[in-house]
């Protein structure tokens, strides 16, 4: 049933292209919902998440969750935490989400924060 879902097809296509060009780099995975946005830096070789940030965090809860500004905050936080963990080069996994709006804002802020992808 999932093979007819356009979101799942797009997600699988994006993930397959990432595997082809990722090499040994970590993956910056993004998920967004109607209310929040989440980001993780994942080492696929070890199966571990080394850094995570979202709008669910205590200091971010004072703001509204589903805005471009909050996505930029999450992008800055994930870049800061990834650099603290010793990771500077990642591949950007947007999942099935289009690279537009909140997803693009998070990516741009992570690049400004020092992540290379």
Brief summary of the model shown:
With 117 residues, the protein is α+β, with helices and mostly antiparallel strands.
Describe the structure.
The chain is of the alpha+beta class and 117 residues long. It has a single domain (2-112), classed as Nucleotidyltransferase, domain 5 (2-Layer Sandwich). Helices cover 38% and strands 21% of the residues. The chain contains three helices and four strands; from the N terminus they run H-E-E-E-H-E-H. It has helices spanning 6-22, 68-84, 102-112, and strands at 26-32, 37-43, 48-54, 90-93. It has a four-stranded mixed sheet. The longest helix has 17 residues, at 6-22. It is globular and about 35 Å long. The model has no long low-confidence stretch (mean pLDDT 90).
Relevant terms:
about 120 residues, alpha+beta, Nucleotidyltransferase, domain 5, four-stranded mixed β-sheet, 4 strands, about 40% helix, Ribosomal_L18, structural constituent of ribosome
> How many distinct folded domains?
1
Secondary-structure class: alpha+beta
The H-and-E topology, N to C, reads as HEEEHEH
| Gap from first CA to last CA | 33 Å
CATH topology: Nucleotidyltransferase, domain 5
What's the total number of strands? 4
Helical percent range?
Answer: 25-40%
Relative strand content: 15-25%
Global shape: globular
CATH top level label: Alpha Beta
Which strand order do you get reading across the main beta sheet? 3-2-1-4
Radius of gyration: 14 Å
The biggest beta sheet reads:
4 strands, mixed
Give the number of helices: 3
Per CATH, which architecture?
2-Layer Sandwich
Keywords: Ribonucleoprotein, Ribosomal protein, RNA-binding, rRNA-binding
Function: This is one of the proteins that bind and probably mediate the attachment of the 5S RNA into the large ribosomal subunit, where it forms part of the central protuberance.
GO molecular function: 5S rRNA binding; structural constituent of ribosome
Subunit structure: Part of the 50S ribosomal subunit; part of the 5S rRNA/L5/L18/L25 subcomplex. Contacts the 5S and 23S rRNAs.
């Amino acid at each position: 049933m999932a093979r007819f879902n356009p979101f799942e097809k797009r997600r699988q296509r994006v993930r397959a292209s990432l595997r082809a060009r990722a090499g040994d780099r970590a993956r910056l995975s993004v998920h967004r919902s109607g209310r929040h946005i989440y980001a993780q830096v994942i080492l696929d070789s070890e199966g571990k998440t080394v850094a995570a940030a979202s709008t669910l965090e205590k200091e971010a809860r004072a703001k509204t969750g589903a805005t471009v500004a909050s996505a930029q905050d999450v992008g800055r936080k994930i870049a800061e935490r990834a650099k603290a963990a010793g990771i500077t080069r990642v591949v950007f996994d947007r999942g099935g989400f289009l690279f537009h709006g909140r997803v693009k804002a998070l990516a741009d802020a992570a690049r400004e924060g020092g992540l290379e992808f």
